[in-house]
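Task: sequence design from structure.
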């Protein structure tokens, strides 16, 4: 059985800390936002009525991540952005059991 699908995932997280450095600048916060759409294709083979074997690959996917670090009130945030295109990646060999 052949199949193709489109997947997407998104992540958002925020971390706040109050440390004790030599000079206390107050509360520090970081924020992480990422998303990743992908195309997925694969094939499954039914070996027995209760077991299947499959192969899955991601022909193309894109990953975008942004991290913002807010060191202290009044300072500009430090921002890092990562972008990545992946081609023919994440091959998976699947073994499935039905109950």
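Answer:
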């Amino acid at each position: 059985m052949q199949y193709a699908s489109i997947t997407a995932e998104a992540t958002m997280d925020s971390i706040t800390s109050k440390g004790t450095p030599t000079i206390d600048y107050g509360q520090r916060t970081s924020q992480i936002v990422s998303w990743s759409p992908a195309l997925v294709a694969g094939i499954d083979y039914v070996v027995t009525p209760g077991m299947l074997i499959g192969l899955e690959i991601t022909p193309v996917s894109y990953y975008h991540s942004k991290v913002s670090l807010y060191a202290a009130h009044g300072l500009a945030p430090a921002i890092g952005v990562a972008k990545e295109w992946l081609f023919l990646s994440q091959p998976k060999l699947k073994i499935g059991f039905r109950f």
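The mean pLDDT is 80.
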